[in-house]
Write a structure and sequence with these properties.
Layout: H1 8-25, H2 32-39, H3 43-50, H4 53-60, H5 67-71, H6 77-87, H7 89-102, H8 106-127, H9 133-153, H10 163-178
Helix pairs in contact: 1-2, 1-4, 1-7, 2-3, 6-10, 8-9
Domain HTH tetR-type: 8-68
Protein name: AcrR family transcriptional regulator
DNA-binding region: 31-50
Length: 182
């Protein structure tokens, strides 16, 4: 094994190797030894820098929604959200699939719930009004998860074969939750 110095470069190599392996093989199919070998580092350094395989996984496979989607006009939020998710599909899909694959691990499931709340439900609820805003935001998050499941897990490409029609249809359903009185 080649020694390349200490500190940040080793941590960065581990991070890059882990991101690639988790996306290719999923959480269960990737070992700390695999990550260390790909990063040309000692397995103990993986744990030293990240604490555990689970914490490393959470550090590298963390999808983020584009904040500008939630900040635009409320009246078109549903269609913008669907369009954005279709546009970022190939970048976001591996992280989404890896998170689902790893969700049987308690720490990952807990973090996934946190991501769901912080990255989707809270920003959406913050834009919504009405006593039932929380329930509508959670329902919209569930609908979006169903869309991602159909497209990225099941691979039903026919559901969005006509992209613009799909955005109008599915985005319209989301929009009814976001602005029910409009």
């Amino acid at each position: 094994m080649t020694r390349r110095g200490s500190g940040t470069p080793t941590r960065d190599r581990i991070h890059v190797a882990a991101a690639r392996l988790f996306r290719e093989r999923g959480f269960a199919g990737t070992s700390v030894r695999d990550i260390a070998a790909a990063a040309e580092a000692d397995p103990a350094l993986v744990i030293r820098h990240f604490g555990s395989k689970e914490l490393l996984f959470l550090d590298v496979v963390r999808p983020h929604l584009d904040e500008s989607v939630f900040g635009g006009p409320l009246g078109t939020l549903g269609t913008r959200l669907v369009g954005m998710l279709l546009d970022v599909g190939e970048e976001f899909r591996p992280a989404y699939v890896a998170l689902l694959q790893g969700s049987a691990e308690a720490r990952i499931a807990e973090q996934l719930r946190g991501l769901h709340e912080q990255e989707f439900v809270a920003p959406l609820r913050a834009r919504m009004t009405g006593a039932d805003a929380d329930a509508r935001a959670r329902t919209a998050a569930a609908m979006t998860g169903g869309m991602l499941y159909a497209l990225w897990i099941v691979g039903d490409d026919r559901v969005a074969a006509d992209r613009e029609s799909f955005i109008r249809r599915y985005g319209g359903l989301l929009q009814r939750l976001i602005t029910p009185d409009a």
